[in-house]
TrEMBL record:
Gene Ontology terms for molecular function: metal ion binding; transferase activity
Name recorded for this polypeptide: Thiamine pyrimidine synthase
Subunit and partners: Homodimer.
Gene3D superfamilies: Periplasmic binding protein-like II
GO terms for biological process, alphabetical: thiamine biosynthetic process
Iron found in the keyword field: yes
Family from the record: Belongs to the NMT1/THI5 family.
All residue ranges annotated as the SsuA/THI5-like domain in the record: 41-246
Record organism: freshwater metagenome
């Protein structure tokens, strides 16, 4: 039996040996090393040597969310960052994979509908119009419009946009707006002095999530203490990132630049991103629902809402095996992270 961690007591030697037995633990990010939930916390934890304090050998690499699911499913990678819980659930069904979400850092959707200034006074004004999309309309926005009786392909149409520049997209003549992310496109438009109106699905009681940290059932079963202590160190990294957003963003940008910055992310952009996301993450944390703890009722509401708009082939998925709240519940004591004397 692997001993538990006790606050301010030495890290148990037997637990250290069990964690070392897990070997190299690989984490892949979901969007380079952007200053974003479920990425910035791993960067901060590694920089502060928190994983080493847990006797863990962690390698972290930049990647993209959708590329990582098959690697985690095959246990070639042990942890990754997901865009939302529903995204992970959708890929779990598509890959017949044993994904397990261990942390849900953002307890609201991160997407929003960005509309041209004066073009959409109310959501009802979307009727008969076109929305630009990067691949497909985001689930929270689609659910928000459906709640207003607006159905894609019937009440409005979507058209594909080229590239990722919102200052270009806002000028596309045939559309009235496009989905974006609260911590990204609005910041860019504001910085450029471009007026717009955003509709936040959360304001319309649409559930959502962002900043998911997940593993696979094989690793969790074979190395439960290593999995829990990876999350323990990561949640301490998250607390550090919330306590000093500027340092967190700077740390991410320094790492991005050291690797060539292929996505051309900027220091100002990453600070703006984390300023938005950090507030969303921090504002939802309580003593009973500390940082990262998955809230099963909220996640059930999320997949139920998204199944209603056609995700998961329109069938509400059973999420019992797709999330394990006990892992994070075991690292907190009345909302305080249990950290040993190291």
């Amino acid at each position: 039996m692997v001993p538990e961690v006790t606050a301010d007591a030495p890290f148990p030697a037997a637990r250290c040996e069990a964690n070392k037995a897990a070997g190299v633990i690989t984490y892949l990010s979901s969007f380079d090393f952007a200053a974003s939930a479920s990425i910035v916390d791993v960067v901060m934890a590694s920089t502060a040597h928190y994983y080493e304090a847990m006797c863990l050998d962690v390698v972290y690499k930049p990647s993209f969310s959708v590329d990582n699911y098959p690697l985690v499913a095959a246990n070639e990678v042990q942890f990754s960052s997901g865009g939302s819980f529903s995204e992970m659930v959708d890929f779990a069904g598509a890959n017949d994979a044993g994904f397990v979400a261990l942390a849900v850092e953002g307890r609201t959707g991160i997407d929003t509908l960005i509309t041209k200034d004066g073009a959409v006074p109310t959501l009802a004004d979307i009727k008969g119009k076109k929305i630009g999309v990067k691949g497909a309309i985001t689930p929270s926005v689609k659910a928000m419009l459906a709640k207003q009786g607006l159905v894609e392909g019937t009440d409005y149409n979507t058209v594909l946009l080229d590239g990722f520049d919102p200052t270009v997209h806002i000028e596309v003549p045939d559309i009235v707006g496009f989905p974006g992310y609260k911590s990204n496109e609005p910041n860019q438009l504001t910085a450029a002095g471009i007026k717009f109106k955003a509709y936040d699905p959360a304001d319309f009681a649409i559930p959502g999530s962002f900043g998911i940290l997940y593993t696979n059932q094989q690793f969790l079963t074979e190395h439960p203490s290593a999995a829990q202590d990876f999350m323990r160190a990561t949640m301490r990294g998250l607390a550090d990132a919330l306590a000093d957003p500027t340092l967190a963003a700077t740390t991410c940008v320094d790492l991005i630049n050291s690797l060539g910055n292929t996505l051309h992310l900027s220091a100002d952009g990453e600070l703006a991103r984390w300023n938005v996301e950090s507030k969303l993450v921090a504002d939802s944390a309580t003593v009973d629902a500390p940082l990262g703890l998955p809230l099963i009722d909220q996640l059930t509401a999320e997949v139920t809402a998204y199944a209603a708009i056609g995700l998961f082939n329109g069938v509400v998925p059973m999420i019992d095996t797709l999330v394990d709240a006990s892992v994070l519940a075991g690292i907190y004591d009345k909302g305080t992270l249990i950290w040993p004397k190291v």
